[in-house]
Amino acid sequence: MKGSEIRERFLKYFEGKGHRRMRSSSLVPEADPTLLFTNAGMVQFKNVFTGDEKLDFVRAVSSQKCLRVSGKHNDLENVGVTARHHTFFEMLGNFSFGDYFKEDAIFFGWEFLTKEMGLDKEKLWITIFDEDDEADEIWKTKIGVDPERIVRMGEKDNFWAMGDTGPCGPCSEIHIDQGEEMSCGKNCGIGLCDCDRYLELWNLVFMQFNRDQSGEMTPLPAPSIDTGMGLERIAAVVQGVKSNYDSDLFTPIIKTVEEIAGISNKDDKSGVSIRAISDHCRSQAFLIADGILPSNEGRGYVLRRIIGRAARH
Ligand code: SER
Question: I need a labelling partner for 144 at 20 to 30 A (CA). Which of 67, 163, 189, 286 fits?
Fold first, then answer.
């Protein structure tokens, strides 16, 4: 299944569950001084979650352009080194604005991965927030996940916030075990290491609070749902390749870089550079398309740094 088909299957699946298909918003968040770049699908709905903006629908689905090169969510140094980090990526997400909550969000996520994408249930692992007994119960009794594959984690891993302020809440992630041959060794496991064996696929956030500048959290008008799954990751998994860079979303770019440079992505020394260049080409192209030009400050400076970094590679 091509990346473009997976994207369409996702949007269609959630349309079938009553979600409004939304266009990706710009990489430049509209009137939001707290963020340099759109870093998640929920950004365009931030004011809907807080109750400051009302929409005439309560369920939405999107494939959102995201950039994670600055601020709280910054993946830059991992790009090209790991098989799964990017500066620019697309986030598939479904959203509930005070409508459904944990149980449906978990059910939809599970059904999409196991039925629509055909992933093996036995390979899926779940993380939940330490204190979230409700999510634990749903995964165990309603979905039937083996309790041994449900892992409780602390705030760092399983409490999601968009930035220092804004909507936030506990989350539950779906990971896939990519097999022992991907293991980094004896102490390999979810929360124990950072290797590519257990790949986080989908983050289901149970939006419940709004955090203000002093760090105080007040309940949102209604519990809501914000989920995000990297298109590049699910594409690699569905296509049976061990690296996002080997999925069809990247191979044409990699091939072009290899041809121009006369070296191979599978070469240990050049591989990181070829992958970093391929990643950076995508972020540069989408940033420029969204109206940013290289400059000495703000967003333009980040773009300039990405171009410089690709050039050094
Ligand atoms: N906002 C959450 C994330 O970025 C889920 O989409 O992981």
Answer: 189
pLDDT tens digits, residue range 294-303?
A: 999 999 999 9
- Cα of 227 vs centre of ligand 1, distance in Å, is 6
Pocket test for ligand 1, best of 171, 173, 202, 224 (most atoms within 8 A of CB): 171
| Ligand 1 atom index nearest CA of 228 | 6
Mutate to test the pocket of ligand 1, among 45, 226, 234 (most ligand atoms within 8 A of CB): 226
Distances (CA, A) of 238 to 3, 118, 233, 299: 9, 8, 9, 34
- Closest by Cα among 259, 248, 254, 301 to 277: 254
Please give the DSSP secondary-structure letter assigned to residue 146.
-
Handedness of CA 177, 108, 22, 100 (dihedral sign): negative
Q: Which tokens go with 35?
A: 């963020």
Q: Which atom from ligand 1 is nearest to the alpha carbon of 42? A: 1
Name the residue with the closest Cα to ligand 1, atom 6. 228
| CB-ligand 1 contact for 228 (6 Å cutoff) | yes
**What would the pLDDT profile of 133-181 be if each residue is shown by its tens digit?**
999 999 999 999 999 999 999 999 999 987 788 899 999 999 999 999 8
- From the number of C-beta atoms within 10 Å of its C-beta (0-12, 13-18, 19+), residue 188 rates as middle
Average pLDDT of the segment spanning 91-115: 98
Q: Assess whether the C-beta atom of 40 lies below 6 angstroms from ligand 1.
A: yes
> Which amino acid appears at position 108 of this protein?
F
Percent of the chain with pLDDT over 70: 99
Residue with the nearest Cα to atom 1 of ligand 1? 40
Q: Is 84 in contact with 45 (CB distance < 8 Å)?
A: no
Exposed/middle/buried for residue 98 (C-beta within 10 Å: 0-12, 13-18, 19+): middle
Whether 280 shows a pLDDT value over 90: the answer reads yes
